[in-house]
Fold this sequence. Notes:
- This protein is mainly alpha-helical.
- The chain has one domain (17-160).
- It has 5 helices and 3 strands, in the order βββααααα.
- A 3-stranded antiparallel sheet has the order 1-2-3.
- α1 (17-41) runs antiparallel to α3 (52-78).
- The longest helix has 40 residues, at 82-121.
- The radius of gyration is 19 Å and the shape is elongated.
- It starts with a strand and ends with a helix.
Amino acid sequence: xxxxxxxxxxxxxxxxxxxxxxxxxxxxxxxxxxxxxxxxxxxxxxxxxxxxxxxxxxxxxxxxxxxxxxxxxxxxxxxxxxxxxxxxxxxxxxxxxxxxxxxxxxxxxxxxxxxxxxxxxxxxxxxxxxxxxxxxxxxxxxxxxxxxxxxxxxxxxxxxxxx
Length: 163
């Protein structure tokens, strides 16, 4: 199975790469966002999930720009329309959200490890971080899910002719 940049865009086994990557992105991104939010606010989930949320968030933060790049290549082949431009704009908005998700996933994992020490040595800082880290993770997760759904909906409308 060859992945390469041909004259007509990214392809894998002769198929455009964007539609193939989209399926992974649409499934992994919301699942990762839910895992990050759960791990940030629920200690039982945090213990069970371990480092999976930050690792998955890193994968998603890398997958989204590749999907966008493959989509831009596909759009250059099929041509741009207002619907494709809207879909592309939404896809570009997803990258900052996935970066925020990665940062908050790392922050939640760090906070989990540092919480006992900070509670002893800096109780006020611990209280502030105890509110800030989970809140930021939930906001990043919610934003990531919303933009993923909007982007996917815009793409599906193009593919299925619902524009």
